[in-house]
Amino acid sequence: MTLRNGDDSEMANQLVEEGKQSPADVFLTENSPAMALVGNAGLFAPVAPATLAQVGSAYRPTHGQWVGIAAHATMFAYNQDKLKPADLPKSLLDLAQPQWKGRWGVSPAGADFPAIVSALMALKGEAVTLQWLLGLKANATIYRGNGAVLKAVNAGQVEGGVIYHYYYFGDQAKTGENS
């Protein structure tokens, strides 16, 4: 067995370049854009129905070409010195409102961000997602990476930030200094 590791898009592009001659039996990635790239190239074999049945239909694609094995949650990390629980946004959508201008951070250039937008679009539709993205553009402070968002929240540069939950838990497993 040979194991190749790399960035999601790097590995996906390598698979597409290799095409049907790829020696790969399994492609494990955490982000949907890489899955879509390989899937659109027609490089996935169908997953056995018994395997698909182990994952709820809401959490797997209808085409049956791949299946999720883990999930991550989008969360709003906040600085407890700046925000009290009663003042937290009730929804991700609230952050598009003018009262949140300059108060929150996000990392839209990261590989995680398209999944957040895709989920929002699937749950709320294109019009609501567009309004949220326009609100993000108007209101959010942009950081490079979820770790940077977490550090900015901790330092009080912003009151809160949209991150994936595992950045918080990863920090807690280390020194916890940023959470």
Helix and strand topology:
Blueprint (H helix, E strand, L loop, with lengths): L7 H11 L13 H9 L8 H4 L21 E5 L25 E3 L6 H12 L1 H14 E3 L3 H10 L4 E5 H9 L6
Parallel strand pairs: 2-3, 2-4
Antiparallel strand pairs: 1-4
Written account of the structure:
- The protein is α/β, with parallel strands linked by helices and 179 residues long.
- It folds into 2 domains: 8-59, no CATH class; 74-173, D-Maltodextrin-Binding Protein, domain 2 (3-Layer(aba) Sandwich), CATH 3.40.190.10.
- It is built from 7 helices and 4 strands.
- The chain has helices at residues 8-18, 32-40, 49-52, 113-124, 126-139, 146-155, 165-173, and strands spanning 74-78, 104-106, 140-142, 160-164.
- The protein has a 4-stranded mixed β-sheet.
- The radius of gyration is 19 Å and the shape is elongated.
- The protein starts with 7 loop residues before the first helix and ends in a 6-residue tail after the last helix.
- The mean pLDDT is 89.
In short:
This protein is of the alpha/beta class and 179 residues long.
